[in-house]
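Record 1 of the preview.
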Amino acid sequence: MGKYTEWTEHKGEKILLVNYAGLQDEEEYLQAIDEFEAETLRQPAGHKMRVLVDVTGSVLTPRITERNKAVEQKAREK
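->
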């Protein structure tokens, strides 16, 4: 899996773990979001995903927030 994303299983359910913990640099954070987006878009159309995101100690900027919203919207439209 990638640097920021990893699939795991809990009680028979697949869960995508997204680790943004400790990200302070906006560009690195945006790269992590790109990785999450790529993994999301690899899933079959209509596929429901369980996602757990760790943002402990990370810094959110308006640019990061907008990028996350765009990825979420794209995933919903898929």
